[in-house]
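Posting for a labmate who doesn't have an account.
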Amino acid sequence: EVAKQVGADAIHPGYGFLSEREWFAKAVEDAGLIWIGPPASAIAAMGSKTAARTLAIKAGTPVVPGTTEALKDAAEAKKLAQEFGLPVLLKAAAGGGGKGMRVVRDLNEIEGALGSAQREAQNAFGDDAVYIEKYIEGPRHVEIQVLADQHGNCISLGERECSIQR
């Protein structure tokens, strides 16, 4: 409503909260305004780590061994941990920032770690879904910022070393 009142024809959400909400992108488009950002469907897919893993696998992108669905229970987590080999990482499917993550180095820790990760995920993101993947010791987290427009122009703004965030 504010954008229409001031005569704007497009909205760029900035960075953070609104830029990561598919409902906001859809609301902007439904209001007849131009959304400057990824499509709502892409935001939704990237908001779920399991959905993002599924898309990456489908595209042929190498991924760390893990699941694309939330764990049903500790017994399933234990079975998968044995399959992938210890250590493993339990991760919240929603959100980020390291919340809802637990490294498991001993099979006896699975049940407590899963419960703890689920509670933290629920409190932080309103979703207790947790999946499992092989834990990589000393990983690097590098992001590449890409801008593209509706005319097919695409540029990279370089890489960002995010490992230092934690």
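Reply:
Got it, the structure tokens are right above this. The helical segments are 2-5, 22-30, 40-46, 49-58, 74-84, 110-125.
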